[in-house]
C-alpha cells in the first residue's frame, strides 16, 4: 500500500511536465488536460505494470503518447461515421424538397418501358433535338414525337400515383 502511495505522489510531482508534453501533442489546453487525466487514470489502474527502478516520467510519457494515438484514431473514425457539417446545411429547405422530387422522377423514369426511357433520356434529359434523337434511335421523327408524348403521359401518371401514396 505504501508503494502505491509513493507512486501516486511521484505521479503528482510530474503533473506539470505531463501537462506540458500533452500540450505539445494536443495544442489545445482542454484537450491536453483531458489527455493528462486519462493517462494518469490509466497509470494508476495499471500501476502494477510499472517496473520500480525505471524512469517513471518515460513510462507516463509513453502512456500519454498512446492515449493521444487512440484519440486521433477515434477522431478519424468519428469523422468517417458522421457526415460533415456542411451536408446538414440544407436540411428542411428547398434543397431537400428538390432532392425528393428528383428521386421521385428517377423512380418514375425507371418504371417506364424501354422505348419510353430511351426517348425521355435523349430528348428530355440529354436535350437532343427531335431530329437527332430520331437518328440515334433509327426511327422516324413522327414516331419519336408520339413515343415522347406517350412517355410524358406515363411519367405524369406515375408521378401523380407516387404523390397520392406519399
From TrEMBL:
| Pfam families attached to this UniProt entry | Sigma70_r2, Sigma70_r4_2
An example GO biological process term is:
DNA-templated transcription initiation
Signal sequence: where?
A: none
Where's the RNA polymerase sigma-70 region domain? 13-78
Q: Where are the transmembrane segments?
A: none
Molecular function per GO: DNA binding; sigma factor activity
Top-level taxonomic group = Bacteria
* Entries under InterPro entries matching the protein: RNA_pol_sigma-70-like, RNA_pol_sigma-70_dom, RNA_pol_sigma70_r2, RNA_pol_sigma70_r4_t2, RNA_pol_sigma_r2, RNA_pol_sigma_r3/r4-like, WH-like_DNA-bd_sf
What are the entry keywords?
Answer: Sigma factor, Transcription, Transcription regulation
Q: Where do the RNA polymerase sigma factor 70 region 4 type domain residues begin and end?
A: 103-155
Similarity comment:
Belongs to the sigma-70 factor family. ECF subfamily.
Instruction: Please state what the protein is called.
Output: Sigma-70 family RNA polymerase sigma factor
